[in-house]
Specification:
This protein is an alpha/beta fold. It has five helices and five strands, in the order βαβαβαβαβα.
Amino acid sequence: MAQKILIVDDEAHIRMLIEQTLEELEDEDVEFLTADNGETALELIRNELPNLVFLDVMMPKMNGMEVCRRVKKELGLDHVFIIILTAKGQELDRQKGQEVGANLYMTKPFDPEVILNKAREVLGL
């Protein structure tokens, strides 16, 4: 059964960059899903149950923190590993990420190697 990675960012070039970074995982039976806003992301998480989510914070319709909070606290989907990817790297933002249940908090610009290695680790590849 294919594992799923959801990439959520309102900027198309960032979604593409993350997908390109992870594309070698397709050989390992990993499927990619993308969303450009928080509402779509929440719907996809609920319906597709991805193993891993790369989640931007500042997005239209619903921000990443709220998506994360709903997934972890309301839907109780603890097995969905959420990595918050954001340009906001202040300690307060990190704490907020932890409060809403994010598994990991990474700042942009990110190192593609770190993203790929983390995805491999989370998916057990």
